[in-house]
Amino acid sequence: MNKKPNLKDVAKVAGVSAITVSRVLSNPEKVSEKLRTKVEQAVHEIGYIRNHAASALASRRSGVIAVIIPSLSNIVFNDVLQGIYSAVKQHHLQVVLGDCHYSPLEEEKLIATLLSQSPEGFILTGTDQTDYARKLLQQSGIPIVQLMELSDCPIDMNIGFSHFNAGVDITNHLLQKGYRKLGFLGARMDTRTQQRLAGFKKAIADFKQPCQSYVVTTTQSSSIRLGGQLLQAVMAESQGQCDAVFCCNDDLALGALFETKRMNLKVPADIAICGFNDLEASALVEPSITSVASPRFEMGQQAVELLMTAAGEDKTHKPPIDVGYRIVERAST
Amino acid sequence: MNKKPNLKDVAKVAGVSAITVSRVLSNPEKVSEKLRTKVEQAVHEIGYIRNHAASALASRRSGVIAVIIPSLSNIVFNDVLQGIYSAVKQHHLQVVLGDCHYSPLEEEKLIATLLSQSPEGFILTGTDQTDYARKLLQQSGIPIVQLMELSDCPIDMNIGFSHFNAGVDITNHLLQKGYRKLGFLGARMDTRTQQRLAGFKKAIADFKQPCQSYVVTTTQSSSIRLGGQLLQAVMAESQGQCDAVFCCNDDLALGALFETKRMNLKVPADIAICGFNDLEASALVEPSITSVASPRFEMGQQAVELLMTAAGEDKTHKPPIDVGYRIVERAST
DNA sequence: ATGAAAGCGCTAACAG
DNA sequence: CTGTTAGCGCTTTCAT
């Protein structure tokens, strides 16, 4: 195996200097058409591929952005990722991705690792970073976006929506529909889920008429199966009184719905169900499930755009961007 | 903003030479405990992060592996990715990930881009690469794994299972259950889906008794909603005769199942449904859906292990690894 | 166990 | 428009 061709090899074949080849690759318009064609042929002929490490070192531009999500298996972050990848393609950037498994400590390590790639921007999920992580991020001097939720003290830029308000609204929706014995089914209990729960409690506390609430949570990760188990649990705790459940996401809601069939409960007559995130399945099951929709793909895209526009500028702290949410009312409530 | 600290800065603070700091970071055991502690403190104090580009350039080891999947939105590849990420963590590697949207041409471009990172290994999905892509890959000299399906002429290493055989088996399962008017619902129609369809046709052709088949396919991407539409289509084409459908994946199968409720068809009495991939929902809907399971997470892990063990060795072409599949029989058939 | 010198492959800055 | 020179920050190699 011959070693990989480098710029000089291409230059030799094309009969030009190395820097000209470099220009053809980065700024083709700065090279005469004649030389450019010669170089392009040479590149293709010997299958030259530019050495990113050398290029990044010399130019101080890595062409990379770093992204950390809490979970690869949660389809919610998938939507965000797709938005990120679609935007990144326009800008000819690469993504280096980390999955921190909802752990701030893992996230801290990942941040250090990913920063070593000299990313030109950093996208984080949520606002729950360790102090040392914040220090590293800050001192890196690159633009940073925190995604998904709104923060009072963002590291840099912030785009998301209020999970607390969404929790309030969806709970009020149930109360307005006449349900009075409300259950909350929560899994994982990350910060966003906690905010949804806080919204649930707030709505109940503020409600002018007597009503009952039952909160069942677990730190296990969400799954459809778990939704069924939590429904069992809330029915046990409420001695069968619970007449509506707010599930902290649609996986749980689907599981709860499937479980009602086994328990011979009618939805929404015996019990109402609502979820969160508005997954495709929620609209298509029978009965369809009320949920909370948010523009995840667009959030991902916009995060990249924010990074790119912020790249040169001074750090004028922009205010958080609230992308909002929408309650999608369906047959289950 | 002061510029980022480099090795020399750390060295100065710790009162040692740059190379010693480098050793502490890469081969701590080669440095005396006294100096090591000093250096570690200095690193933490000034928040030093090693410049990956420089490190990669000097050492000729990028610590990166490249991965291309056909779709970020398909949960199937998510499982594989999780396997990859979990294995990669053990080896202290970074992943650069590309989504080629099922397009060999996009894949070719991605391969060129990702190769510029000098990855130490490359994981590809499927066997449908362009000639130029294969050339680039081959000449890069790095170990390569093709995932998901088995290939007659792999570029290098290969791990997957036979989608053709799985298609044959699941079709025979339906035939054995007494169904004789079989429909195939296919979306996307990538190479693996086509192999499943080929298996379906083979099983029908080989069956000793009279039976009927209806094939409905589209190049649209899969979704639950589409499953409902395709079920409508196959019922129209078969004039209501179709008594079993093999859906090329579980999304379609779920959509088909939900549609049967709207059409007032009983499953499996009026019509049997089976899917592919064995998603969690398939086990939990009512009735539960027969599907084909495969060890996706493990495939991802094993792909990384293969790359790592192959790293040093000569290219002794290993035979493809068949991870097999399993038909999970459930209530829907 | 530690250090000095050289150079990885590329591009910025300057020169022509 | 094209080329020359220097150096990005690190690790390799060789010396002590």
UniProtKB/TrEMBL annotation, chains A, B:
4Fe-4S in keyword set: no
UniProt organism field: Rheinheimera soli
One Pfam family linked to the record: Peripla_BP_3
Listed name of the protein: LacI family gluconate utilization system Gnt-I transcriptional repressor
Domain of life: Bacteria
SMART domains assigned to the protein according to its UniProt record, in alphabetical order: HTH_LACI (SM00354)
Keyword set includes Hydrolase: no
PROSITE patterns the record matches: HTH_LACI_1, HTH_LACI_2
Domain HTH lacI-type: 5-59
